[in-house]
Amino acid sequence: MTKMTYAVAIDRAIAGDIDAEVVERLEALKVQLAKRGSGKHGLTKTQKEGLELMERIVEVLADAEDGMTATEVGDAVDVTCQRASALLKKLVADERVRKDKVGKQVRFYLA
After folding, report:
1. Crossing angle for the helix pair 81-93 and 70-77, nearest 10 degrees?
2. Which residues have C-beta within 8 Å of that of residue 29, sequence separation ≥ 6?
3. DSSP per-residue letters across 10-73
4. Closest among 46, 64, 42, 53 to 88, alpha carbons compared
5. pLDDT-wise least confident of 56-60, 61-65, 68-72
6. CA-to-CA distance for 71 and 69, rounded, in angstroms?
7. Which percentage of the chain shows pLDDT scores above 90?
8. Residue 36: phi, psi to the nearest 5?
9. Is the pLDDT of residue 51 over 90?
10. pLDDT tens-digit map of 89-105
11. Which residue in 16, 61, 64, 103 could disulfide with 110, CB within 3.0 to 4.6 Å?
């Protein structure tokens, strides 16, 4: 006799062949799924830091009348240009910052 797996128990239940063994195995599956949690987790450490950095970027841009490049923003908040660019992209998507091309430079302004 083979071991009753969750898949076998589900197949038998779908086929209408429900006995005590199938019910027991499906109850065990229900307990396992409940242990996984609701899927609602808080923000990670990196995500929290990103939110704080975005607030600092907004503050820095509020003081910059002529706008700033991603490199200038990165220097102002002490992060790399790549990190600043990624955070600025999120702020543009949230419509908190606007992006304009001035000559060959892309400059960011407070929306």
Report:
1. 110
2. 6, 9, 10
3. HHHHHTT---HHHHHHHHHHHHHHHHT--S-----HHHHHHHHHHHHHHHHHHH-TT-B-HHHH
4. 53
5. 61-65
6. 5
7. 55
8. -70, -15
9. yes
10. 999 999 999 999 988 99
11. 61
Which tokens sit at 13? 């239940």
Indicate the Cα dihedral angle 58, 64, 66, 67, nearest 10°: -30
Cα 67 to chain centroid, rounded: 28
Please state the length of the chain: 111
Q: Which amino acid is at 74?
A: G
**Cα–Cα dist 22/48, whole Å:** 45
Question: Which DSSP letter does residue 68 get?
Answer: B
Q: Which residue has the tokens 């955070």?
A: 87
SS3 42: coil
- Is-above-0.85 flag for pTM? no
